[in-house]
Amino acid sequence: MQGDDGRIALDLMDETAFARLSGDGKTLALRMAGTDGGDGQWLDQLVLPAPSPFAHGGGCVCCAPDGAIAAMLADLFRTRVTGQRPWFARVIVVVPAALREGTRQALEANRVVAARYRPVWLSMRNTPAH
Question: What is the pTM assigned to this prediction?
């Protein structure tokens, strides 16, 4: 799911929306430990770092503007282009609904993420992405 600009599609959704999706074999899912892993047809599912002790997620704007999620996305891109990871066309970041907005803001503000990933935020409009 690359756009015309060549960047990788990046979406955010909560656990409920993610659990309803079927994997397509070319999408990576980044999710917090303990969230439902869906149907198992994802290219890969990686676990995000644990939330901070302040009950904020890994992408929290107030605790880590560039966040652990952005660092994971940068590393995923590197391993993709160097052939260390199978080619993927899309990444879904699964975070609790209460953390989506802060995570979205943090990812949109990160220049490295913006250069490599194209935010689609389809789930923010309650539309299943596929």
Answer: 0.75
